[in-house]
């Protein structure tokens, strides 16, 4: 039995070796010759999985240890009887922390978020967590998810155009889809841009092609969009430096890069392969995640507004501006920056004290997912 795996999948080495020969290759380099004799393939987003990679190969199962699946030709896999899976929800807590850190930056450097309106486009694993971040910061939250609205009678869907008109901050959390009635490619386009409230903030951490970059530049230049934050880009890793320079925050597709998120993705991949090939690893989890020297926080006792205390707690766990600096300093090294990402742990891994006497702050910290002492 042969398994080919992306060499950037943490915690994987040694796990499958008792059951199969495992060959590790950089995701971008995995080609037809590498997978010809393979039974299974474990990838992340940098391997395009389609007919040109797999036709004539022995591959029977493919798993991507990521949330997104737009790098996989799912209809072709299904037509050809190749089992596939992704890792739903694996890094949703990580994107939640990324957006919370963006909110902290907005709160500290731009405008107070309390009372402002947040529009969440795509309310799945990530979007529903991001809605909680909005609530934690005292925002009014509007939700847009037509596929959910079509099947959930109690889903409070707000039409996209209405959401864009009403929101001070709009954040995208949809999958990239190019066909069908809910296609998301260029969801922000010349027409929808015109619906946006003047002076609003746009955040995209879903996929680059959800927001048409040319239109985003137009929106920024016209003042319709006052601040833009991008984690994902058209044509990654060859990003537009011109656009990067116009952003409040630009990061190299790392919103989902917490250790916790990657570990969850690896666990989903191992468990899927175990079920497919009958290994004894159906409940496998990485044994220990790396920790930082001090993972306890004390809420600031300065007399200041609650959202500032919240913002300070958030950036003590993760400051998105550190990632932005790394990209601004070296935009040509997008993939290298991603490949050498520092240890980041999500909110539930942190313990926070000093909030007990302040029920409102305690509630907000709980919405973010902190362990409160
Ligand atoms: N930047 C990163 O590191 C990072 C990390 C995780 C996920 N992502 C991206 O974010 C996407 C969302 O992740 P998720 O875990 O929440 O996925 P999910 O599948 O749990 O949720 C996606 C939601 O989008 C909704 N949706 C689909 N089409 C829509 C449309 N046209 N308009 C509005 N809503 C629509 C779906 O109904 C679903 O509820 C992923 O597909 C991935 O591309 C990026
Ligand atoms: O889809 C996902 O899960 C995220 O975009 C994830 O961060 C992608 O990571 P990559 O496979 O590009 O390392």
TrEMBL record:
Its main location: cytoplasm. It is found in: Cytoplasm. Pathway: Cofactor biosynthesis; pyridoxine 5'-phosphate biosynthesis; pyridoxine 5'-phosphate from D-erythrose 4-phosphate: step 2/5. Pfam families: 2-Hacid_dh_C, DUF3410. Its EC number is 1.1.1.290. Substrate binds at residues 45, 66, 257. The active site is at 207, 236, 253 (proton donor). Keywords: Cytoplasm, NAD, Oxidoreductase, Pyridoxine biosynthesis. NAD(+) binds at residues 145, 231, 256. GO terms for molecular function: 4-phosphoerythronate dehydrogenase activity; NAD binding; protein dimerization activity. It comes from the Bacteria. Belongs to the D-isomer specific 2-hydroxyacid dehydrogenase family. PdxB subfamily. Catalyzes the oxidation of erythronate-4-phosphate to 3-hydroxy-2-oxo-4-phosphonooxybutanoate. This is Erythronate-4-phosphate dehydrogenase. It comes from Marinilabilia salmonicolor.
């Amino acid at each position: 039995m042969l398994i080919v795996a992306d060499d950037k999948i943490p915690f994987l080495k040694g796990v499958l070796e008792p059951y199969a020969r495992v060959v590790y290759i950089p995701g971008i380099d995995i080609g037809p010759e590498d997978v010809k004799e393979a039974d299974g393939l474990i990838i992340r987003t940098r391997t395009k999985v389609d007919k040109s990679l797999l036709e004539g190969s022995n591959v029977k199962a493919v798993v991507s240890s990521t949330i997104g699946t737009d790098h996989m030709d799912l209809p072709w896999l299904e037509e050809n009887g190749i089992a596939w899976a992704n890792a739903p929800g694996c890094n949703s807590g990580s994107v939640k922390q990324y957006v919370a850190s963006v909110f902290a930056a907005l709160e500290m450097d731009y405008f107070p978020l309390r009372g402002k309106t947040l529009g969440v486009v795509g309310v799945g694993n990530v979007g529903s967590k991001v809605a909680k971040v909005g609530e934690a910061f005292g925002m009014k939250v509007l939700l847009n998810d037509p596929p959910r609205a079509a099947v959930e009678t109690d889903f409070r869907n707000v039409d996209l155009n209405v959401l864009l008109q009403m929101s001070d901050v709009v954040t995208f959390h949809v999958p990239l889809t190019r066909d069908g009635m809910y296609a998301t490619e260029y969801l922000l386009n010349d027409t929808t841009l015109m619906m946006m409230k003047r002076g609003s903030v746009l955040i995209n951490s879903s996929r680059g092609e959800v927001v048409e970059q040319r239109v985003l530049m137009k929106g920024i230049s016209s003042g319709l969009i006052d601040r833009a934050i991008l984690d994902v880009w058209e044509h990654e890793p060859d990003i537009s430096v011109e656009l990067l320079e116009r952003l409040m925050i630009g990061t190299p597709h790392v919103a989902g890069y917490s250790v916790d998120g990657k570990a969850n993705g690896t666990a989903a991949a191992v468990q899927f392969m175990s079920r497919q090939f009958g290994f004894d690893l159906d409940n496998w989890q990485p044994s220990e995640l790396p920790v930082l020297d001090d993972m306890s926080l004390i809420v600031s006792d300065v007399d200041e507004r609650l959202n500032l205390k919240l913002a300070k707690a958030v950036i003590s766990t993760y400051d998105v501006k550190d990632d932005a600096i790394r990209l601004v300093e070296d935009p040509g090294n997008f993939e290298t920056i991603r490949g050498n990402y520092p240890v980041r742990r999500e909110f539930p891994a942190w313990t926070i004290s000093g909030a007990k006497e302040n029920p409102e702050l305690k509630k907000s910290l709980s919405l973010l997912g902190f362990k409160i002492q």
